[in-house]
Every structure is written in structure tokens, then in C-alpha cells.
Amino acid sequence: MKQGPYTLRDLFFKHVGQTSSSPLGLSIVKAEGVFLYSETKRYLDFISGVSVSNVGHGRREVIDAVKAQMESYAHLMVYGEMIESPQVQHATLLCSILPSSLQSVYYVNSGSEANEAAVKLAKRLTRRRRIAACRNAYHGSTQGNLSLMDSEEFKGAFRPLLPMVDHFTFNDISSLSVITDETAAVIVEPVQGEGGVQIPAPGFLEALRKRCDETGSLLIFDEVQTGFGRIGKMFAFQKYGVTPDILTLAKALGGGMPLGAMVTSPERMAAWQTDPPLGHITTFGGHPVCCAAALASLKLLLEKDWVGDVERKSRKVVEGLKSHPAVKEIRAAGLLIAVDLGREDLAKKVLYLLLDEGVITDWFLFQPTSFRIAPPLCITDDELELGIQAVRRALDKLVE
Predict the structure, then answer these.
(1) Which residues lie below 8 Å from residue 88, measured CB to CB, with a gap of 6+?
(2) Fewer C-beta within 10 Å: the chain N or C terminus?
(3) Which region holds residue 379: left if phi is over 0, alpha if psi is between -120 and 50, else beta?
(4) pTM score, whole prediction
(5) Would you say 145 and 154 are in contact if contact means Cβ atoms under 8 Å apart?
(6) Structural domain boundaries of the chain?
(7) What architecture (CATH level 2) is domain 2-54+306-399?
(8) Cα–Cα distance between 338 and 333 in angstroms, integer?
(9) Mind listing the pLDDT tens digit for each residue in 45-89?
(10) Taking CA 370 as the corner, what is the angle to CA 369 and CA 375, rounded to the nearest 5 degrees?
């Protein structure tokens, strides 16, 4: 496709900012179900836009909801000032599947902002300043969220950052001693995503909950990547039986539209109103068109059997790949799967071999020896088998 003397590809590299020196540079013209289409090739989506497209692409229910809302109104004003039907309906449905302690939703634009808001609210509620966060965790790229990382490689260039952040190690109960009565909040992913799908060991999340109760620290679960059925329950905390004080959501929340949220009790949420008022504001958070898409997406997840079938599909992937000689380990939390090849160079090389095979996937920020498999939850057995065989062919080439 040309625009004057330039192709779309030329204009992409000329005018659109990139965050790596070698972007994929795929030009996608259509997405439907579990497939992405360029002008010349079909690709199986084995990453779901990084756990965004849980209901798949081009769902008619979501498209119709977006169109209908646009015909009524788009942006009005948010901040919880106006009663906007899509927002209210979505919050009501979302809260109906959450426990009684999580019944108030504050909408934002992304997972990064949801985590920023959660940490701010914890400081406001406790009047404390220290935050505890997990090593090898990713909560977003804003300066506040960078402060929560332990990776100097990622955050060193952006100092000064927030002070008074203490780090503990996922699955190491003894390291929870860094949480004290000076800690405002503890933020953790119940399953570490960018850490390479690290699954909580029995008793770890329970010990974390107990430690927060002892110190009066608020427990924040970042379910930006694990929420909305990805690991076989609607939310990871439901699978592991530990309820946070604050829940953060994004990615699949919006059904393909940009949306994030922080969920807590109405009593805690009321702290935004005073000392100072407007404690967290955002122009586009809870945009009615995004909430209409979110509502349609959530209804789909509740109506279909996709979430209940996640564990079976996960086992199918593991069984199909674990015997391959290139595979050193597979870590699976539902359809959030890390295939570990033992070497960073192999994990990066296989991504391009998979592109040749018509499969799109990715690696992990803090586990570079692994690549990710996270397809839309609506994927059929035949489509899953198509992907498994493509992965095996790419791994065969890697071994050769």
C-alpha cells in the first residue's frame, strides 16, 4: 500500500515511534477469531496482544456494542461525575462476580495507571510511605511503576524514582519480613507474567495475606495479565483462594479497547473524595465506548464455556510440546504458558522461525530463555493443534 512516494512500511519507520531496534514490522489488514491477516499471509495469534484478546478478534457482539454506543454518545466527562450507562452496567456486572470486599470500580486507561492509582490509594488510606514489591515483577512503565521494579537495567536510566520501595522474592516466605508496620501496600502478581509464568507455591499467597494482616498493609493483586479467564478462573485470586484488598485490571478488561480499573471496597474508594479531593483523576478513564466493549466482552466470557475449558486446552499444549528435545521446561497457568529453551538466543531465534510458520508469539521481559503461548480463550482444538504443530516445526528447525 502506497501513500505518495512512500509505502505504509516506509511511513511506519519514518513517523511512528518504536521501542526496539528490530520491530516485527508486520502490516496487518484484518483480524478475526484467532487469526491475523496481512495482505499475503495468515498468522495464528498465540499472544492475544499480550493477553488482551481473550474473546478473540472481530467478535460481532463487541463490534455491535461499540457501534451502538458511538451512535448514542462518546466522551462526555468521567471522574465519576456523570451517570454513563455502559460504565454503570459494566461495573455492576463485574462486581456481581467479585467478593463483597471488592464492590467499587475506579476506571482508568491502562494497567500502568491502575497500579499507580492503587499505590496512591494505599498511601492515602494508611498514611504510610513504604511499598513492598516483588522481584522480577512488571507493573507498568510509568515512573511510579518503574520504581517498583528491582531491575536496574530497566529503571536505571530514569532515576530519580520513588524512594522507600522494598523487594521480596516470589515464593520465598522468609523474604516477606521486609513487609513491616511502615509498609503502606504490597503489590504482587498472583502469577508472575513477565517473570516467565511463575506459579505461586502452596502457602505463599496465604503467607503474604497473613503478613499484610499482621502489619496493616494493604494487599494489591495486579491481575492485569491474569484476569478474565486467562488462567482457568475468571481471576487468579479465585483460583488460589486469597482475596486482595485492591485488585487491578486492564488488558482483557476492555475487550480489545483501552481500559483499566482499580477495584476495592466503597469505603476505601471514598478516600479519593477528601484530603485532597479529586485524589486521582483521568480524562478518558472509563470511556463509554470502551466500557460498552468491556460489557460485551464480559458477557461473552460469562455465557460461553471458554474459561471452564482453559485448563484442558492448557494440558493439550503442554502434552504436545513437552517431549520435544529443544524444550527444557514448560510452566503453565492455564493459557498463560512459558516454553523454556534454556538459552536466550534460542528463545529469540524461535520467534522468527514461528513467524515463518505463521504463528505470532513473544518472549518475557525477565525470563528471556522462554517464549510465550497465550492464545485467545476461544481457540478451538483444531486451531490449537495447528499452532502446536507449527511450534514443533519451528523447534525442529532450531535443533537442526
Answers:
(1) none
(2) C
(3) beta
(4) 0.96
(5) no
(6) 2-54+306-399, 60-303
(7) Alpha-Beta Complex (3.90)
(8) 9
(9) 999 999 999 999 999 999 999 999 999 999 998 666 889 999 999
(10) 165
